[in-house]
Amino acid sequence: MFGGSFNPIHLGHLLAAADVCEALALDEVLFVPAGAPPHKPATDMAPAPDRFEMTRLAVAAHPRFSLCELEMSRSGPSYTADTLRALAERGGELHLLIGSETFLDLPRWRAPREVASLARLVVVPRAGGGFDPRGSAARAVLDELDLAPFTRDASGPARAPVLVDAASLPISGSDLRQRVREGRSLAYRMPDAVIGYIRRQGLYQAPAPAPAAPETR
Length: 217
Prior knowledge:
Layout: E1 2-4, H1 11-23, E2 29-33, H2 48-59, E3 65-67, H3 70-73, H4 80-88, E4 95-99, H5 100-105, H6 112-118, E5 120-124, H7 136-144, E6 162-163, H8 173-182, H9 192-201
Helix pairs in contact: 2-9, 4-6
């Protein structure tokens, strides 16, 4: 499972997912766009149906990438624990793909221990982020979630998060949204189909200025 706001989805997401899929020989990577991300402000967030459609367009060409609508069809905030419970009912071994910064933030999630028990954590360090899997910050999270130390071997202990050095491109959603507002190029940062969708739907444009109040005398 690879969840996120995908606001918008870009090549950094896709390359990381492809590398993890290959490194761990996964049968499938399930992209789960959040309907209502609980930890992100609603401002500058594209509508959920648009983020879902952009994700669908982005993953369509990869034979092991799939799209999941669970968080789109569920009302209220999109909590990963709820989604993993629903996926666990379908059977199979679950992995949860997250970045290293997200891993350090896990204790702030809803039911973080349950999240770590429902799915094997797969952590991708951000390029230039300086993540230290043996450092005090990482150890504090491991202890709080009752996890074993990191491993690079997917056949290692089930309670050990797997560290995968997947591609980590310096692309951010906030930069892409700013580029749209400024009319700058999105080329080589996201799939062409997603760029076309953003343009057609007019997403991430600067809001029109409010009309001036009538002059009073």
